[in-house]
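Researcher: Dear colleague, please comment on this protein.
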Amino acid sequence: MIIALVIIGFIFLIGIFFYNSLIGKKNQVANAFSAIDVMLKKRFDLIPNLVEVVKQYTTYEQGTLTKIVELRAKAGSPNISNAEKADLDAQLSSSVKGLMVNIENYPDLKANTNFINLQTTWTESEEQIAAARRTYNASVTDYNNAIMMFPGSLFAGMLNFQPIAVLETAAEERKNISAKELFNN
């Protein structure tokens, strides 16, 4: 009887340990995603200034500027899912990269101090977002490993813990960049 109680108590303690471990890993994933949100907010706050400075110098890029402003507005909406945020982030990154390439056609804009500062801040923001994404993916991988590997998988299955998808780079961004095409525009 005492041996049975000790075994049951031991199994109960192991269960508590794995449950707490899984909750901790799940919270790390949520924390890592919130860090991405903070970086995206910083970038979204930078966009209106960037758009206004570019508007002063450009005339034919209005479609691109409008698209960037619309994407920013959608991404700032409070009721979108994490997957939608990631998709809007990818679209926004692509649009701004295209804008930065087209800026080469405006020497006065490239020399503008405000624009240079905004461009530097934008680059720093992109680097911080990339670092936050790496941290998020590492947290997701750690969490997924914990719920998929034995013996954690036993407890995760009983407690209905589900795998979480890592953030992936869009197929368009994985393509090789042709320097020839960039400089012939």
Notes: Helices lie at 2-57, 62-75, 82-102, 107-111, 113-148, 152-158, 171-174, 179-184. The radius of gyration is 23 Å. The CA atoms of residues 74 and 88 lie 8 Å apart.
